[in-house]
Amino acid sequence: MLQPFEFFVGLRYTRARRRNHFISFISLLSILGIALGVTALITVMAVMNGFEKELRTRILGAASHATITLYEEPMQEWKILADTAVEHAGVVGAAPYVEGQVMVVKGKQVTGTVVRGVLPESEPDVSDIDQKMIAGELVDLQPGKFEIVLGSALARYLGAVVGDKVTIITPEASVTPVGVLPRMKRFTVIGIFEIGMFEYDRNFALLHADDASVLLRMNKGYSGVRLRLTDMFAARKVASDLAQEVGEEYWVSDWTQRHSNFFRAVKTEKTVMFVILALIVAVAAFNIVSTLVMVVTDKQSAIAILRTIGASPSSIMLIFLVQGALIGLVGTVLGVVGGILLALNVETLVPAIERLFQTQFLDPSVYYISSLPSELDYADVWRVALLALVLTLLATIYPAWRAARTEPAEALAYE
What we know:
alpha+beta, 2 domains, six-stranded mixed β-barrel, 13 helices, 53% helix
């Protein structure tokens, strides 16, 4: 156990005004380096958490938490299936949908897209698209009128606004006396939505479910039922429970399966950034090595005197371990405080800096997330603090061991 003697001597060496100001300067640099490294690491982890949360929220604002589909389309009795799903404690909403791939044409602009047929009165139960409308309203979709709601980027590409006509071409062809012709239908644009994700804003359009069923020749059937859950992170368990309830003829999938590659890539990027920024802390921590080596050299005579009055090598080693640990502790505490304050105020500071320098770090024409979101996770804070303390303790071992090996006779030979 650490005794008061080693602790107080180590503390005295740390607080003492050294004759060698260069050593004090290196100690200060070590503290500042650790503090800056810890601050940067905590802040970046918070920003990456914020990005992950924001992307997940935007994706699941259009996609469903879970989906039930019939292996043999189309699904006719969706209402019974939806009622069965809603009876599960983890499900709060259910709505049918029709989905297929088509070509959209307006003038000379042609592009492929995914159309989803929805029931406007049920869609708010499973998605947030009704809250993302920037023109028109989702409830304006009426069956039999062949109306369409476009994603914002898709509308810009087509040059379409509310009231314009677009032509939908389906993959299925019609056989006529003059030959095989593609099936086409004119739709009126009655709304535009913007999710904030290019995948949806550029390649997604909404129809009324009845019109989509006619367009895709589904005989008034549906592709499946989309579900919203109380806890999105319990999607895998809820999907497994529902799969047992609805039977083997249905396939129950969840968002972790459909978007697994994307979120796995985000998680991998976060891990890589943690490792890279941890190197900053490591470099600062190992500056302690040079600091303590110079202190040991400077204190040779003092170490020799301590040895002659009965201090053991282990006591000498503990003295310098205390000194190095205090440097690391001060730097870590400063870094943790700075990191928490910066992470909690990123969303305020970044816009202020942008206004000051008349610039924008995330151009909205390039990035759909034009601000830096921040989500501070205190588990990350503890991990970063623990990492910094471990690195600083490791950095003190060699100088402390070298101090413990000092021979009193050799150190005092020329005093």
